[in-house]
TrEMBL record:
GO molecular function terms attached to this record: oxidoreductase activity
Enzyme Commission number: 1.7.1.-
Family to which this protein belongs: Belongs to the nitroreductase family.
The organism's taxonomic lineage, starting at the top: Bacteria, Bacillati, Bacillota, Bacilli, Bacillales
Domain of life (superkingdom): Bacteria
Name recorded for this polypeptide: Nitroreductase family protein
Length: 220
């Protein structure tokens, strides 16, 4: 067990939100155990998703071998991107969206009926509504859903990681077209959302600024 496993937890939501920074260099001695990573992912997947269909899928890339498969995917015009995050982090979590997520709708709603939070009638109603919605939507609809769900779970993952005393960096600088295939996933089925490096920060991140709310929100 490493020192961080049951320590450094943060329960103060303001600290979690205001002190999260995109961290590019991690303490290489810190590994996140599989049990702890499962806890983090369990909390991350409490994120909302469209019809609760939970289209997200995760690849926890932690071994040297898997990281060395990932590194070449972050080379553009001969230049390596995101190397430090990938190499020094405890893991890089590759988030994908399953374009066939609708197939698991019966399983998800049967579980709700079983736990007593939904009646059989409501289940049938929702399954029919989903069926109508999906069969009357354009092709890009499933991908839009997968990317939206994936973005929400990524954000929740980064906040949960902070609550466990870990740091993260979202990454979009890699080859999204080919990552699924390189890691043995069906590329027609799994759309790449983003990578999230996770570990214990080795140096403080740069405090970033935000636009004033007056520039990004309006009231009607
Ligand atoms: C979708 C997305 C993709 C990103 N891609 C990268 C990346 O490839 N490499 C990187 O170092 N940071 C990346 N970032 C991190 C942003 O640069 C960072 O979140 C932003 O500058 C704000 O800083 P903060 O997160 O510390 O507040 C990405 C963030 C997001 C949300």
């Amino acid at each position: 067990m490493n020192l961080h496993e049951h320590g450094n937890r943060i329960n103060d939501f303001n600290k979690i939100v205001f002190e999260r920074r995109a961290i590019k260099k991690y303490d290489t001695s810190v590994k996140i155990s599989r049990d702890e990573m499962k806890d983090i992912l369990t909390k991350a997947t409490k994120a909302p998703s469209s019809y609760n269909l939970q289209s997200w899928r995760f690849l926890v890339i932690e071994s040297e071998e898997a990281k060395s498969k990932l590194l070449p995917l972050a080379i553009f015009n001969g230049q390596q991107y995101n190397e430090q995050q990938i190499v020094t982090s405890s893991a890089v979590i590759a988030i994908f969206g399953d374009l066939e997520h609708v197939a698991s709708a019966p399983e998800i709603f049967n579980a709700e009926v079983k736990q007593g939070s939904m009646t059989e009638n409501v289940k049938e109603y929702i399954l029919e509504a989903i069926n109508i919605h999906y069969s009357n939507s354009p092709d890009h609809f499933r991908k839009d859903v997968a990317l939206t769900d994936g973005g929400l779970v990524a954000m929740q993952l980064m906040l949960v990681a902070r609550s466990y005393g870990y740091d993260t960096c979202a990454m979009g600088g890699y080859d999204k077209e080919n990552i699924a295939e390189i890691f043995g996933l069906d590329k027609e089925r799994y759309v790449s959302v983003m990578l999230v490096s996770i570990g214990k920060a080795d140096s403080d991140g740069r405090p970033s600024t935000r636009k004033p709310i007056a520039d990004v929100a309006e009231w009607k």
